[in-house]
Specification:
Elements: E1 3-11, E2 15-22, E3 27-30, H1 38-48, H2 60-69, H3 76-98, H4 102-105, E4 114-119, H5 128-137, E5 142-146, H6 157-174, E6 179-183, H7 190-200, E7 207-209, H8 219-226, E8 231-233, H9 240-249, E9 254-255, H10 264-277, E10 281-282, H11 290-300, E11 309-310, E12 339-340, H12 354-361, E13 372-373, E14 379-380
Parallel strand pairs: 4-5, 4-11, 5-6, 6-7, 7-8, 8-9, 9-10
Antiparallel strand pairs: 1-2, 2-3, 4-12, 13-14
Bound molecules: magnesium ion (MG).
Magnesium ion is lined by residues 183, 185, 209-210, 235.
Site (Transition state stabilizer): 310
Pathway: Carbohydrate acid metabolism; D-galactonate degradation; D-glyceraldehyde 3-phosphate and pyruvate from D-galactonate: step 1/3
Pfam family, one: MR_MLE_C
């Protein structure tokens, strides 16, 4: 069996699908993307393609090593996302060839259903309460929201009050019938992170995500010492070789690798196993499309330490397309009380609607996150 073709399709809202064809007619799908840099990742995919074209798709481990080590330079958001999408398609093909879901190839189920959470609010975290009420009607009780808008390295008491008031109203309204994580989104620098974590502690969030940027990971153990809130991070780390420093230093309780950013299933199942050895929970990052989510679920269902799965149904980024728009088996993705069952179909478990993907790719927008600035005109973290 040989890989004969790799095609990429950039589609709304901000995703990219990869289609891998074989000489035996079996097709695999992946989702390699960095949000806002889809074209760059697309170029990287086609630069990596010669490592796998004409090769046996069942030799995933060898192909992964060839892509990672073969080009001398490695790692980082772009290259590891390109590898991720190719890797996902390889696992999809292997599962389809053998007629089993990928989790069977990884040792089989460790749980019967996986807990997910839903985003509420948006970039400007205002109308959280109304959004939570709507989702609760659908049985969802676990949420994530942005903790603050832009926050300066040293900011005002009024800004802190606003951030705290938003969270306080949730506990006031819903008590302990809901659980939520708070995403600082890298908007908070170390001095204010200490302040905000202390102020938010009484509301007992499930976690605070990216309390500071991953590039300031040396603060994670110090912040963890200063708060009882579990700290989460990982969406901006891209391989075992980055995550190992987080494990060594400590401070992170919930690891959030992204299956479309951090080398795919082959790499993330190893990252998950490393986390388990350090008593660190797993909650894969996934504000992306259905192939990325399916890849996450394959790892969740074989990882004992997986606690929560992010998913993008109704997320504020999904302008122009929704998670299940490109899927012909949406019934397999239905949430029940916020949980999802193992995807039953062979491979990744997604039947991609090829016609829709190809039609949507004809006028895909170039999504970009906004550029925020502080009141003084200087650039703020979004
Ligand atoms: Mg985040």
């Amino acid at each position: 069996m040989k890989i004969t073709e790799i095609s990429t399709y950039r589609v709304p809202p901000r995703w990219m699908f990869l289609r891998m064809e074989t000489d035996e007619g079996i097709v695999g799908w992946g989702e390699p993307v960095i949000e806002g840099k889809a074209r760059t990742v697309e170029t990287a995919v086609h630069e990596l393609a010669p490592y796998v074209m004409g090769k046996d798709p069942l030799r995933i481990n060898d192909l992964w090593q060839a892509m990672y080590r073969g080009g001398f330079y490695r790692g980082g958001a772009i290259l590891m996302s390109a590898i991720a999408g190719i890797d996902q398609a390889l696992w999809d093909i292997k599962g389809k060839v053998l007629g089993v879901p990928v989790y069977e190839l990884l040792g089989g189920l460790v749980r019967d259903r996986m807990k997910t959470y839903s985003w509420v609010g948006g970039d400007r975290p205002a109308d959280i309460m109304a959004a939570m009420r709507t989702l609760m009607e659908g049985g969802i009780s676990t949420f994530k929201m942005n903790g603050t808008e832009e926050l300066a390295i040293i900011d005002s008491s009024a800004r802190i009050d606003a951030a705290v008031a938003r969270i306080a109203q949730i506990r006031e309204e819903f008590g302990s019938t809901v659980e939520f994580g708070i995403d600082f989104h890298g908007r908070v620098a170390a001095p204010m992170a200490r302040v905000l974590l202390r102020e938010l502690e009484p509301f007992r969030p499930l976690f605070v995500e990216e309390p500071v940027l991953a590039e300031q990971a040396e603060y994670y153990p110090r912040l963890a010492e200063s708060t009882s809130i579990p700290l989460a991070a990982g969406e901006r780390m891209f391989s075992r070789f980055e995550f190992k420093h987080v494990f060594e230093r400590g401070g992170i309780s919930i690891l959030q690798p992204d299956l479309s950013h951090a080398g795919g299933i082959t790499e993330c199942v190893k990252i998950a196993a490393m986390a388990e050895a350090y008593d660190v929970a797993l909650a894969p990052h996934c504000p992306l499309g259905p192939v990325a989510l399916a890849a996450c679920l394959q790892v969740d269902f074989v990882s004992h330490n997986a606690v929560l799965q992010e998913q993008s149904m109704g997320i504020h980024y999904n302008k122009g397309a929704e998670l299940l728009d490109y899927v012909r088996n949406p019934e397999d993705f239905q949430l029940r009380d916020g949980y999802i069952a193992p995807l039953p179909k062979p491979g990744l478990g997604v039947i991609v609607d090829e016609d829709k993907v190809m039609a949507a790719s004809r006028n895909a927008p170039d999504w970009r996150n906004p550029l925020w600035r502080y009141a003084d005109g200087s650039v703020a973290e979004w």
